[in-house]
Design a protein that fits this description.
A 5-stranded parallel sheet has the order 2-1-3-4-5, with helices on both faces. The longest helix is centred in the last third of the chain and has 26 residues. It has a single domain, classed as 3-Layer(aba) Sandwich (Rossmann fold), CATH 3.40.50.1110. The chain starts with 8 loop residues before the first strand and ends with a helix. Helix 2 packs across helix 8 and helix 6 packs parallel to helix 7. Helix 7 links the parallel strand 4 and strand 5. It is of the alpha/beta class. It is built from 8 helices and 5 strands, in the order E-H-H-E-H-H-E-H-H-E-H-E-H. The chain is globular and about 55 Å long. It is 48% helix and 13% strand.
Length: 195
Amino acid sequence: MSLVEVKPLRILAFGDSLVAGFAVSRKAGFTVQLEKTLISAGHSVEVINAGIPGDTSAGGRARLEQALATEPDLVLLEFGANDNLLGLAPATLKTNLEAIIQRFQENHIPVLLTGIKPLRDLGETYQAEFSQVFSSLAAKHQLPFYADFLAGVAGRAELNKADGIHPNPKGVKEIVRRLTPLVVETLGHLQKGHA
């Protein structure tokens, strides 16, 4: 009697330095911590780091084919921080994210969308338009949605590097702790679909 080996579900963390891990050791980085947390909760997963520091949503869109080539079962989509820091128009962010989401959906790959609150204050109108990009795309495409990737971490010196933007290892752990329930819920829906 042969045992069938169950292939771990592959989660692609597709984004910028916040998923890539900026000036933290590999083992303290977001993808390693998320994978470790999910495995210890009994999930058979592999989390792939497809984060590039400094990347904007346009950069993510440009490397979509690379991302698709990893054949993920789920994409955790995290872009927007650099678009905001560079003062790029929220409409451009929306166009790029929508193209990314649609491309994954065309390939029947579910997307968990994470938003981010603006890190740079560019006025009330910009702030409102920027924040609405994520929630409107999540609603339109019926995506699992985590409103603020840096919730509970942004603005807390003890959880961030000296630049006040990038989380330190403690901050990464806090992000993973807060985000894990939604990832687990999304994995549950995926596994029901595969059963």
